[in-house]
Structures are given as structure tokens and as C-alpha cells.
Design brief:
The chain is α/β, with parallel strands linked by helices. It has a domain at 87-164. The chain is built from ten helices and twelve strands. The strands form three sheets. The chain has a six-stranded mixed β-sheet with strand order 6-7-8-3-9-10, with helices on both faces. A four-stranded antiparallel β-sheet has the order 2-1-4-5, with helices on one face. It has a two-stranded antiparallel sheet with strand order 11-12. Strand 1 (8-19) and strand 2 (22-33) form a beta hairpin. It is globular, with a radius of gyration of 18 Å. The relative contact order is 0.18. Bound molecules: adenosine-5'-triphosphate and magnesium ion. The site of adenosine-5'-triphosphate has 13 residues, from strand 2 and helix 1. Residues 19-20, 22, 24, 42, 44-50, 89 line the site of adenosine-5'-triphosphate.
């Protein structure tokens, strides 16, 4: 997909991230530009969620540098974080907790509001617009727990949009969703990318769903294996490096089509 990319907004320079007993990401060096739509690919345990948590400033590199908005990730302030929308891999919401779709989306404004200020009319309008963008305005008064999985994902995307983010991090937003809803969500995300000129990092195990939309694919397996336009990085060699023998690159309707069986990075 063609779009004009701006200056780098996220810069990893030899950044290593470790947990107590293991290296999750090893010496990652890459830039992500303003307006870039990136698909982040890799088997289970390959460091994709860690990559997003680094950008959110939730974990810091033990070696190397990670800069977001020209700011070292250790120095990210609330006003920076408020510009990063995040859809976590698993949202832990109690289905019985009485909170409506509207209230979930309104949470997206909390970063901008701070602890004391109450939502103003302008905040409500942003939330309205966000719910409208994901086509959930008519369901705003429904308890979140009563929505379907796909509808909940839409509301969570609205919550991220209500932040008026510059960067949108989506960690497997289409997992557990039926194929038709998946495609609708992908159309929506593509539309949001174009309308708001968002920088999007989209984690998925489904290479086929992201390749037609992304400017760039990043292949991770603790180390960076490849980064580039889908048409150049989608090759049997890179796929085999990451997934071993459990991958097959073929064609469907003249487009590259990848078949991967479940693997673990170890
Ligand atoms: N809080 C933590 N404490 C210790 N180890 C962790 C922690 N979070 C992640 N890890 C380890 O770091 C590695 C990378 O994990 P990460 O969650 O980033 O992988 P992932 O690519 O998102 O995997 P998945 O596709 O399963 O979501 C894994 O080996 C994981 O076990
Ligand atoms: Mg993950």
C-alpha cells in the first residue's frame, strides 16, 4: 500500500530487552516512520508484545536505545503516552462489571484529562466521533460484557482512537474473531490509517491478512530477521528462518499466500 511516510517516530538502536531469565528481544535496530503501517510477525514468544511494551515505555532496554517522538523511552511523559493508543493482546474485563461501551471508549480521554478534570463537551465529542468511526455509536449504552467479541474489539479500538493517538499499537486485534468480522475490522483499520494518517503497529499471526495492507512487515524471532515492504520480505528463505519447515509460501489469486502451522520460539 502506498502512502507518504514522514520522519522516524520510533527508533530502536541496538535495543535489547530482558526479563528475569531470558532475552526477549536482542539488539534490535530499526526505524518506524510517521504514517507507516507496520505488520509485526513472529511465532509465539518471539518478542512482539515486548516490542509494543517497549514503545509504550512499560519496559526499558537493558542495552541500546529506544526513542519515541525523539524522546528516550525512559523519559516518556504522560503527554507522550497519551498519544500512543494501545489495544492489548488480552483485555481482562469482567463480563459482569457494569460498564457501557460509551464508558469504555471514554477511558481513552483519561490520559488527556489527568486526575482532576472531568470530561468536557469536547471530550464527549471526540468519544462520539471515535465510536462512530468504528460503527458502534448505536450500541454505546449497551454493557460492554454483552457485546460480541468483534464488537468489543471495535469499542476497544474506539477507546484507543479517543486518545487522538499519533501511534496505534494493536496486539492481535483480530484473534478469536470470525473471518467476515476480521475482514471488516481490517477495512476499518485501513480506513483509520488513511483518514488520521496514523502510524500503526499491527501484531498478527496471519501474514495473509496484513500483507495487502501494510507498508512494511517486520519479522521477529528474538532478533530482527527482516524489515521491508511485504513484496520484498515475503520469501521462502525468510519464512523458513523464522518458522523452520512448518511454512509454505504459495500463491492465491496471484498474491503470495503463506501457510504456517503453529510453532513456538522456545
Ligand atoms: N513478564 C514476563 N516475565 C518473564 N518473561 C516474559 C514476560 N513477558 C514475556 N516473557 C517472555 O519473553 C518472551 C517474549 O514474549 P512476548 O510476550 O513478547 O512474545 P510474543 O511474540 O508476543 O508471543 P505471542 O505470539 O505468544 O503473544 C517469551 O519467551 C516470554 O515467555
Ligand atoms: Mg504477544
Amino acid at each position: 500500500m502506498n502512502s507518504i511516510l514522514g520522519k522516524p517516530i520510533v527508533r530502536f538502536s541496538g535495543a535489547t530487552f530482558v526479563y528475569a531469565d531470558r532475552v526477549a528481544l536482542d539488539k534490535i535496530t530499526l526505524d518506524i516512520s510517521e504514517g507507516e503501517f507496520v505488520g509485526l510477525i513472529g511465532p509465539n514468544g518471539s518478542g512482539k508484545t515486548t516490542f509494543l511494551k517497549g514503545i509504550l515505555g512499560l519496559i526499558h532496554p537493558s542495552e541500546g536505545i529506544l526513542q519515541i517522538f525523539d524522546c528516550a523511552c525512559e523519559q516518556l511523559r504522560c503527554h507522550h503516552r497519551a498519544r500512543i493508543g494501545y489495544l492489548p493482546q488480552k483485555e481482562r474485563t469482567d463480563p459482569d462489571y457494569p460498564i457501557t461501551a460509551w464508558e469504555v471508549a471514554l477511558m481513552g480521554r483519561y490520559g488527556a484529562l489527568g486526575l482532576i478534570r472531568r470530561p468536557a463537551q469536547a471530550d464527549r465529542e471526540i468519544v462520539l466521533e471515535s465510536l462512530k468511526a468504528v460503527d458502534m455509536l448505536d450500541r454505546r449504552d449497551i454493557p460492554f460484557g454483552n457485546l460480541s467479541g468483534g464488537q468489543q474489539q471495535r469499542v476497544l479500538i474506539a477507546r484507543a482512537l479517543a486518545q487522538r493517538p499519533k501511534i496505534l499499537l494493536l496486539d492481535e486485534p483480530t484473534s478469536g474473531i470470525d473471518a467476515a468480522t476480521q475482514h471488516r475490522l481490517m477495512d476499518l483499520i485501513q480506513q483509520l490509517h488513511q483518514t488520521y494518517r496514523l502510524t500503526i503497529l499491527f501484531v498478527t499471526h496471519d501474514i495473509n491478512i496484513i500483507s495487502p495492507l501494510a507498508n512494511t512487515l517486520i519479522f521477529l524471532k528474538t532478533r530482527l530477521y527482516a524489515k521491508g515492504p511485504p513484496e520484498s520480505v515475503l520469501c521462502q528463505e525468510t519464512l523458513s528462518l523464522i518458522y523452520g519447515k512448518d511454512v509454505l509460501l504459495t500463491q492465491r489469486e496471484k498474491m503470495p499466500y503463506v501457510i504456517v502451522s503453529d510453532t513456538h520460539a522456545g
